[in-house]
Design a protein that fits this description.
heterodimer; B: alpha/beta; Alpha-Beta Plaits; 10 helices; 33% helix; globular; transmembrane (chain A); Gliding motility-associated ABC transporter permease protein GldF (chain A); ABC-type transporter activity (chain A); ABC2_TM (chain A)
Chain lengths: 266, 296
């Protein structure tokens, strides 16, 4: 566990800053709930005047009723912003912790210690998981406290499901970046490809419902499987979650297999 | 059991040559110098020994065990990379403690002794250290767990002369305590001062392995002597071992093969004003090696 602990220790400032920022941003949205509810009719008219495509791109779809607390928080937080931030954190850490250190030459001296490749990979994965869990925990606590403060009650397991879905997205794309970095040690490639796929997955989820022919394929987007089905309203979907986790594990396994075989630092 | 053994070890990076069919054997308890110009394949060999890179063909053993996938074996190795890159935000202490944890072993008393010997302040952040000081950090972390085998890639790069002497003392000490030292270098002088045997690598192939004495005997030296009197060329033609003899005013210039002794004895018959002896470059050593081989 020494590698995991050391990496977290070296990144503790970033970790805390990121987590607090995410929590604060979410708290502000929750605090807007009462004023939104008061002026819901004017907002509704305003929304109806906007083009659907544009709204969809920002995560506001027909299926969501923006003027319930669940819908409002889905639109403001869980459709885009929170998953996006966790994906940014995940992809950043995932691409830096193996490929980034390798490019800077730091990984070589660690790998020359009595540390096997599998252990090295798993501890680096641990860094990613713990960092995302920490951010998600702060996020969850801030939303829970915020809802208490504005006196809106939502089922606790639904709150957990919403945060959990965003965590899974961070883990999926962070895991992809980690696996890509483990595959060939190029940080820019891991960062770029994982980010690109995350954007594609988001747009796929957001825009396919606008077309009748494509609407069915929305369910193949990881964004739908993690956040698009509105876990805050509907609770955890274990089937979707299992699919997401399986894909994540598959990507990680491929990265690990290659990492065990390949040259480090060339 | 050999401390290091490779058998037909080859490594290609795509089409680029690393090393070619390298058969290397380092005996336990010796200081072995791995000598060659930059890009010859020294670092490639070393990185195979640490299982950082995997050979294209052939095999490598360290302390009697195959290196591939053998993490526990590295418990017994101390390694100094050719290019050092640390976590810059850490202090020396933090780095040594971290590396100690990775080995489940940290002998603080011995570590402090090493820090004192190398005159290194461990409380400073690594990013504030000069190149020479970073090299010291690298050396300390390689020695600090008293490994059975030290693998040092260009160990004295960036060290000032005093510290080079300290480093040489360290190497002799650990050798005396039973450790094996494998060090690479592109400087003949360094290897000559330290090593029992030397392997010469060139363009990925091991071209010679010999005891250090033999190498010196075979090596060439460029010598210039200035006399206080006129020179008689005939006298010098008879001195053994001199080649390319030239005279310029009161300067004599010659290439000496093997021992300098006959030349010095002959020069001592006259008043000498100046004496310059140039250490042979690696390239010259290679050339002599090839000359002597083709002559044989």
């Amino acid at each position: 566990m020494h590698i995991l602990v050391q990496n977290l220790r070296m990144g503790r400032g970033n970790l805390l800053g990121f987590g607090l920022g995410l929590a604060a941003l979410s708290l502000i949205s929750v605090m807007f709930l009462p004023s939104m509810q008061q002026s819901s009719q004017e907002l509704q008219r305003l929304l109806e005047s906007m083009p659907k495509g544009m709204l969809a791109a920002f995560g506001v779809s027909d299926q969501i009723d923006l003027f319930t607390p669940e819908g409002f928080l889905q639109g403001r937080l869980f459709a885009l912003m929170v998953p996006l931030l966790l994906i940014i954190q995940g992809v950043g850490i995932g691409s830096a912790t193996i490929a980034g250190e390798e490019e800077r030459g730091q990984l070589e001296l660690i790998a020359a210690h009595p540390v096997g490749r599998t252990r090295l990979f798993l501890e680096k994965l641990g860094v990613l998981v713990v960092a995302l869990l920490f951010s998600s925990l702060l996020l969850f606590v801030s939303i829970w406290l915020g809802l208490k403060a504005v006196d809106v009650s939502l089922p606790l397991d639904h709150q957990l499901a919403a945060v959990g879905g965003s965590f899974l997205l961070g883990l999926l794309f962070g895991g992809l970046a980690l696996a890509l970095g483990a595959w060939n040690g190029r940080r820019a490639m891991a960062l770029g490809l994982a980010s690109l796929l995350a954007v594609a997955a988001y747009l796929w989820n957001a825009l396919t419902p606008l077309s009748k022919d494509l609407a069915e394929s929305q369910k193949f987007s990881p964004f739908y499987l993690a956040a698009g089905y509105e876990p805050l309203r509907n609770g955890f979907d274990w089937g979707y979650t299992a699919i997401l986790l399986s894909v994540t594990l598959l990507l990680l396994a491929l990265g690990l297999l290659r990492f065990r075989q390949r040259d480090i630092g060339v | 059991m050999s401390a290091i053994r490779t058998e037909k070890l080859s490594k290609y990076y795509g089409k680029r040559r690393g090393v070619v069919e390298l058969d290397l054997e380092v005996h336990p308890g010796e200081v072995f110098g791995f000598l060659g110009p930059n890009g010859a394949g020294k670092t490639t060999t070393i990185r195979v020994l640490l299982d950082l890179i995997r050979p294209s063909s052939g095999q490598a053993w360290v302390l009697g065990q195959p290196v591939r996938g053998n993490a526990r074996l590295r418990q017994r190795i101390g390694y100094l990379p050719g290019e050092l890159s640390f976590y810059d935000g850490l202090t020396g202490w933090e780095l040594f403690r971290y590396f100690g944890r990775l080995r489940d072993r940290l002998d603080t008393a011995y570590l402090k002794q090493l820090l004192e010997r190398f005159d290194l302040d461990p409380s400073r952040k690594l990013r504030t250290l000069s190149k020479g000081n970073k090299q010291k950090v690298g050396l300390v972390q390689a020695f600090m767990h008293r490994p059975e085998l030290l693998i040092l890639d260009e160990p004295t790069a960036g060290l000032d002369p005093l510290l080079q002497i300290e480093f040489q003392k360290m190497v002799r000490e650990v050798q005396w305590q039973g450790a094996t030292v494998f060090l690479s270098s592109h400087v003949m002088g360094e290897v000559q001062a330290l090593c029992d045997r030397v392997g010469i690598i060139r363009e990925g192939r091991l071209v010679a392995v010999s005891a250090i004495g033999e190498l010196a005997e075979r090596s060439l030296r460029r010598v210039r002597i200035r006399f206080d009197e006129a020179i008689n060329p005939k006298e010098w033609a008879q001195v053994p071992g001199l080649k390319d003899l030239r005279f310029e005013g009161d300067w004599l210039e010659a290439t000496v093969q093997g021992s300098l002794d006959p030349l010095i004895k002959a020069a001592a018959q006259h008043r000498v004003r100046d004496f310059i002896s140039q250490e042979p470059s690696l390239e010259e050593i290679f050339l002599t090696y090839y000359d002597s081989r083709s002559a044989a």
